[in-house]
Amino acid sequence: MIVRIGRALTLLAALVVVPALALRGLFLHDMDGARARLAGQSETIETAFGREEFAVAGQGEPILVIHGSAGGFDQGLEMSALFANSLYQRIAPSRFGYLGSVARVPLSTAMQADAYVPVLDRLGVDQVDVVGISAGAWSALDFAIRHPERCRALVLVVPADFLPEGVSVHGGRITKAMIGSDFVAWAAGRLMPLMPGTVGSVMLGTDERVIEGASREEKARLTALMQHLSPISARHTGMQFDIETAATRHPEALASITCPVLTISTDDDQFGTGRRAREIANAVGTGHAIVYPTGGHALVGRQEVLRRDVEAFLGSHHVAAQRR
After folding, report:
1. Distance between the two ends of the chain, CA-based, in angstroms?
2. Which of 74, 178, 94, 77 has its CA nearest to residue 136?
3. Are 121 and 185 members of one domain?
4. Against a cut of 0.85, is the pTM above it?
5. Helix/strand/coil (H, E, C) string of 273-315?
């Protein structure tokens, strides 16, 4: 009897321990791959505000691409890859608290906006078009307000809104769990190909049906977006600051922006950026909003039209500037 119980316990242990060890091995393997993906792809400079990391890709007219929450320079380059075949040089900083960017002074969106200037100076860029994505819109707006002589045009893609009263973070408990755990963030990325609608709805603010009906290429893009959040621990401080920023609505001098402004979003964005896009465009004398009916926060199925709309806006602005 004792022998049988011992065998049963051994079998039970094997059924639990072996899969757990395999899962741990896969997790560690993927984390090593995530770190390798980032290694050597960026450079850093020391500024009055702290260490600022950035990466540059392409040649031509410079665009400052400011990433969203849970991002970094890698997300900035990845989400602006639709311009890779265009005549643009993409400058993608990691906002403070993300990856290699570390602040020496208290974080604020205004301070972050000021810290973009040394990056542009390092690259010899006098004026730049700015593309702010999601939570990157806050410091993009501050850059246009505080450095009008450096900002030629401003494009805000699904610009983050302030959180409704009583809401502490988009995505609730799952997002909070991801912020504090490399393993949870990794697991969500691994589950994305298997449950794209469920994971995407919570994390990407996009209707489950929109994701399920997306093309294979779009689902692959969303999966890469989720899996490239790792290592989430290297983005924790920045995400915490984004949450704090979203939770505290503050006055914005939007009417003082003088450069052309284009805001882009969707009506079904579960993070409410459609309303925010219209609000900003209406407050800026030079503003124009494009709000697609569907696509969610991830702009599913809208990548090609997004590219055309942004390039048309920037192109017309450049032609007008040359005429002046």
Report:
1. 94
2. 94
3. no
4. yes
5. HHHHHHHHHHHCCCEEEEEECCCCCCCCCCHHHHHHHHHHHHH
38 in a domain, yes or no? no
Total tally of structural domains belonging to the chain:
2
The 10s digit of each residue's pLDDT in 134-164 is: 999 999 999 999 999 999 999 999 999 987 7
Domain that holds residue 204: 172-233
Whether the ω angle into residue 231 lies within 30 degrees of 0, i.e. cis, is yes
Is the four-CA dihedral 291, 296, 297, 299 of positive or negative sign?
negative
Whether 91 and 219 map to the same domain: the answer is no
- Assess whether 158 and 275 both reside in one domain: yes
Which tens digit of pLDDT belongs to each residue from 172-220?
A: 565 666 667 999 999 999 989 888 888 888 889 999 999 999 999 999 9
Helix, strand, coil abundance in the chain, percent, nearest 5: 50, 15, 30
3-state DSSP assignment of residue 149: coil
